[in-house]
Write a structure and sequence with these properties.
single chain, IPNS-like_FE2OG_OXY, Fe2OG dioxygenase domain-containing protein
């Protein structure tokens, strides 16, 4: 079966892409196109990432976050170490932030930015294997999107061939308390190309669909896929970067991993001719350098505006 629905999200079975079943590939590609058009999200099953690897990574991540704070804060880059805009390693949202979580941020291990905890044993191996597998899945989904978008073969592969801006984050959301609101991660859209999420059994991820918040229930061994702002702009709003959030629950800790498959900061992003002049439609966005948008989004995090309407979204570039 290429696609189905679990009540909230379209479900796409990626098996045909591994078996070479051409009829199955055509059906699954159409299912991805439809899901990205209507929801911006889908649940991938039989995606090539071993379920036991995902389960082990979640277990080791939970063990790390259960350590005392003084142990966790050791997992940070040394002073003066070369670092990307957001330093790799452990961090916790500041107390004034509406987001109530802590995380470990990772980049491609080959870049040498990552900082790993000594405990629990096996953490580094598990997350590096997850990074490699999710990179592979990103390349596959990019190929599928290339077909969905009706682009020349290999267009996205050549446009997005540099993997040095990809990142992955292990997240721990604290239980909701009476003193604090239930917010775990404020509503937002992702600024990148494609995001993958796998989560424990707690739940809390919600997607905005037709003005309603729809819970994305945990389904073992599945990966949640959503497209980001880059694809929305390139398709001139034909495929959507959906708004989503994480709501915390009382008495339970939530653990998840998110992988951000993205373009190099020096790439120019604009609506493609296939979605504008070739079909007689005006572009809905002006073009921009990806790193400029990244910097604006980073500022949302480092200097959160006091008014929600001042948070920068992709609408900043809307015409």
């Amino acid at each position: 079966m290429a696609a189905g629905n679990d009540g909230a999200l379209p479900v796409v079975d990626l098996t045909p892409f591994f078996t070479g079943d051409e009829g199955g590939i055509a059906r699954a590609t159409e299912a991805v196109r439809e899901a990205c058009r209507t929801h911006g999200f889908f649940r991938a099953v039989n995606h090539g990432v071993p379920p036991e690897l995902m389960a082990r990574a979640l277990e080791l991540s939970a063990a790390f976050f259960a350590l005392p704070d003084e142990e966790k804060i050791k997992v940070r880059p040394a002073e003066g170490a070369k670092a990307p805009p957001l330093p790799a390693g452990y961090a916790r949202q500041p107390a004034h932030s509406a987001d109530k979580n802590e995380y470990v941020l990772l980049f491609d291990p080959k870049l040498g930015f990552n900082v790993y905890p000594a405990e629990p044993a096996g953490f580094r191996d598990a997350v590096e294997e997850c990074f490699a597998r999710l990179t592979r899945l990103g390349l596959l989904v990019q190929e599928i999107l290339n077909e969905c978008m009706g682009l020349p073969p290999g267009f996205l592969k050549s446009y997005n061939s540099d993997r040095s801006f990809d990142s992955m984050v292990a997240l721990h959301y604290f239980p909701a308390t009476e003193e604090e609101e239930e917010n775990g991660l404020s509503e937002h859209e992702d600024g990148n190309c494609v995001t993958f999420v796998f989560q424990d059994g707690v739940g809390g991820l919600e997607v905005l669909k037709d003005g309603e918040w729809v819970p994305v229930e945990p389904v073992e061994a599945s990966i949640i896929v959503n497209i980001g702002d880059v694809i929305q702009v390139m398709t001139n709003n034909k495929l959507k970067s959906a708004t989503h959030r994480v709501v915390r629950k009382p008495g339970v800790h939530r653990h998840s991993f998110a992988f951000f498959f993205t373009i190099h900061g020096d790439k120019w992003v604009e609506p493609l001719p296939e979605f504008t002049e070739k079909i007689g439609e005006a572009p809905r966005y002006r073009g921009f350098l990806y790193k400029d948008y990244q910097q604006l989004r980073m500022r949302n995090k480092t200097h959160p505006p006091s008014r929600p309407e001042d948070v920068v979204h992709i609408t900043h570039y809307a015409i």
